[in-house]
Amino acid sequence: MINIAKGMKDVLPSQSYKWQYIEATAREVAHSFGFKEIRTPVLEHTELFLRGVGDTTDIVKKEMYTFIDKGNRSVTLKPEGTAGVARSFVENGMANEGLPAKMYYFSPAFRYERPQAGRLREHHQFGVELYGSDSPQADAEVITLVDIFYKRLGLKEVKLQINSIGCAECRKEYALALKDYFRPHLSEMCADCNARFEKNPMRMLDCKDERCKRFTVNAPAITDYLCDSCRAYFGEVKKLLDISGVKYEVNPQIVRGLDYYSRTVFEFISSAAGAQGTVCGGGRYDTLLQQIGEKPVPAVGFGGGIERLLMVMEAEGIKIPENKKTRIYIAGMDEKTREVAFKVTNLLRNKGINAECDLMERSVKAQFKYADKLGAEYVAVIGEDELNSGEVNLKKMSDGTQQAVKLEDIYSYLK
Q1: 300 shares its domain with 378
Q2: Has this prediction a pTM greater than 0.85?
Q3: 334 is in which domain, residue-wise?
Q4: Do the domain assignments include residue 321?
Q5: Position 52 pLDDT exceeds 90
Q6: Which of 234, 214, 215 is nearest to 223 (CA)?
Q7: What is the pLDDT of residues 383-402, one digit of tens each?
Q8: Over the stretch 141-172, which tens digit does the pLDDT of each residue have?
Q9: Which of 151, 248, 286, 354 would be 298's cystine partner, CB 3.0–4.6 Å?
Q10: CB distance 90 to 298 below 8 Å
Q11: What is d(CA 45, CA 38) in angstroms, rounded to the nearest whole number?
Q12: CA 228, CA 127: separation in Å to the nearest integer?
């Protein structure tokens, strides 16, 4: 027996309707905001993530699935969706098609980390990317899209936290303040934080090690080091969220775990499924294209895990509507009548009716049991008498009542 690889998970037919519901809702909301779907490859050149995501991040240092292909090129299974969209935006000349460019995606993401609830080595993300606008309205629009999406799904315990991590100039002074604060505690902090201290002390705030959390909680706040421009920008984002009726709280600890962010960052969090966790996160990344060697274009977006979202919805007791069940099951009694049942079934399917017939050469009794398992609303049995008369009895499975209907009139009756 060959088992599934560790950290991977099958989405079974009995559960896939939940994914389809979330994806359909996400598409509906994204389209209402004018976003269009983009699909990027699952495999990219490793350099894209080294330069875009950042070589000081845990994703790049510890978690990427990277290997050398048969052409002796280093390639990586994408660990997140934004860098691939950025590459596609440039490579396909989307800036020439009129800005802003508004895109959404559903994508697998691969990270080699310890599997846990809601976090697998292959997980799936819904995300949006907006290119071309440096206005606070773009930030507020993306955040509002997420807020409406979660409300549409029925979530009530998800909370929005926002922060500003300023621009490069703000962060120079802030990095010095962080170093002054953390320096006396380095001997008590993890090896990763000691490495980040020199390269990117802001990453220390994102550490999940309990030894470090007791120090990071009292670290200086970036909001105290914002320049006038970044402070005004953040104030406008908050004002626009207020106008949109989006509730939020400012959390100076949010820095996000990727190097391409600047100014606005945000997370939607929930404790419905146990310990407080991030359901989705995002922000502004005006320098991302510059980091991958291209002309800078302002951008903002987010990504959220579908597995974690499903877990939170289940914890909140949200019932996801199942797909339409079988409307009618048409049973045959022998080879000849099964052929007629097959023909009638497909005529109904051509007209949009969910119909099933026997593929296993079961007895009529076994077919009734199977139809019940499918949740079929009606069952019709075609035997020799029904062939001769051209009429069948439609049995309503919920109450056992029957109605005689001509074979050619089944569609009209069901409609």
Answers
A1: no
A2: yes
A3: 328-414
A4: no
A5: no
A6: 234
A7: 999 999 999 999 999 999 99
A8: 999 999 999 999 999 999 999 999 998 888 88
A9: 286
A10: no
A11: 19
A12: 31
